[in-house]
């Protein structure tokens, strides 16, 4: 590969990492052609972008960004593939589901929600990560809950009071 081509690939990787904000580094070496094809189809279906990269080019792309990705550099050995998704936990769920039949794809490392996850033992933690929008929704639901309870109590209290007054009014007749 020519030096100009390498610099283009590095720029594209850096741009993709910046666009998605997070990524998973996986090892696909033990997959045969059919399994790799199935994984790619599954990634496309789930909205995950799968890119096979050279470790040196990935490292240079990471070094060109503002964030310090040094904790991940130790994972850049052997064959590597990157998984990108707009939803943080989708690639982790895909890896777990796909790995039911086979021991791969194996998670090497991940950078998700501005945190580093190194090693395949972090897969469960990644599956349970909530996206920023999910967390905002949870906070809004928690904030709305007391207000809904107050409104509900006021509405039901008015109905009870109305019923009592109606009964008292009918009794005097």
Written description of the protein model:
Helices cover 58% and strands 15% of the residues. By secondary structure, the protein is α+β, with helices and mostly antiparallel strands. It has 2 domains: 3-129, Ribosomal protein L10, N-terminal RNA-binding domain (Alpha-Beta Plaits), CATH 3.30.70; 130-173. It has a 5-stranded antiparallel beta sheet with strand order 2-3-1-4-5, sandwiched between helices. A hairpin with a 2-residue loop joins strand 4 (106-112) and strand 5 (115-118). Helix 1 crosses helix 3. The longest helix is centred in the last third of the chain and has 41 residues, at 132-172. It starts with a helix and ends with a helix.
Characteristic key phrases:
173 residues, alpha+beta, Alpha-Beta Plaits, five-stranded antiparallel β-sheet, 7 helices, elongated
Write the layout of secondary structure elements.
Layout: H1 3-20, E1 23-27, H2 33-46, E2 49-53, H3 55-63, H4 70-73, E3 80-84, H5 90-98, E4 106-112, E5 115-118, H6 123-127, H7 132-172
Antiparallel strand pairs: 1-3, 1-4, 2-3, 4-5
Helix pairs in contact: 1-3, 2-5
